[in-house]
Amino acid sequence: MDSLRLCLAAALTAAALPAAAAGVLENPQPNATVNGIGVISGWHCTASRVELVFDAQAPLRAGSGTDRLDTQATCGRRDTGFGFLVNWAVLGAGPHTVRALADGVEFASATVTVATWGTEFLRGRTGGVVLDGFPDASQAVELAWSESLQSFALQRVYAEAPMLAGRWNGADLERRSGCTQSQNNGSRGTYAQYDITMSSDTMSISQAGVTGLTCQYLGQLAVPFVIPGATGTYSCSDGKRGTWRVRTALASATEMQLRLDIQLDTSETCAVDAILGGSRF
User: Fold this and answer.
1) Does residue 145 contact residue 152 with C-beta atoms inside 8 Å?
2) pLDDT tens-digit profile of 192-217?
3) What is the CA radius of gyration of the chain?
4) How far apart are CA 178 and CA 167, in angstroms?
5) What's the rounded Cα separation, in Å, for the pair 51 and 47?
6) Per-domain residue ranges for the chain?
7) Separation CA 183–CA 162 (nearest Å)
8) CATH class of the domain whose range is 2-114
9) Is the dihedral of CA 215, 170, 141, 93 positive or negative?
10) What is d(CA 155, CA 25) in angstroms, rounded to the nearest whole number?
11) Could you name the CATH architecture of 166-279?
12) pTM of the complete model
């Protein structure tokens, strides 16, 4: 009986060893798309040396032994974390495999797809964008380019989205082509005031020009709170009628721009490339 107990204890101990020696590659996740400057990270219970292998290249040693309180229960210790800073663009665009080694033995791997900006390190660029409907449908976020991260970074979260709603004062710029009356072709521009109303799936614009002309844009969003791609109908007090589609949309707390494709379809048949722009306090 004692011999049986010893055998069972030995078997249980052997079965427990793989769990005690467990390791996890947390970032990147399998089949992820990666870009910019990132961190490859995870943990391993027993490794004294953690290395990473990119495709068939030579192993590179990762920093290890960092504090991971969440591994205490699994590993019986906390100094299990590892990390490695990588510029993904150095690998080149396309699929790549990352393998993690603990004291020379592979314990995890992930195949990822690298997206690049066409160069290993993009310099001297600035830019930003407001993304409506994220992180949920009632919010918007402002993202700005970070050269050091080689990616866009969060700048601000707006509690209510989209920011286009409300009154704006600015300009209506139009570039017309294919008009029935040739004198209407060409570029035009005038002052305009816009009152924009939004819901989760609709957008309407009331436009009042300095000449007394008024126009109404009534439209539907293709996806809740996603403005590019919105389509609708267009009518003005001078009799112009047609359809419109939002090509691009930009908005901040004080500035907005809508780029529209407008097609007139009554007595005048111009195709109009229009920019509605405005500011407010």
Assistant:
1) yes
2) 999 999 877 889 999 999 989 999 99
3) 29
4) 32
5) 10
6) 2-114, 128-158, 166-279
7) 38
8) mainly beta
9) positive
10) 29
11) Beta Barrel (2.40)
12) 0.56
**Amino acid in the structure at residue 11:** A
d(CA 279, CA 17): 65
pLDDT greater than 60 at residue 227: yes
**HSE (CB half, 13 Å, CA atoms) of 19?**
9
Q: Give the range among 56-70, 140-154, 219-233 with minimum mean pLDDT.
A: 219-233
Residue type, 56: A
Tokens encoding 81: 């974390």
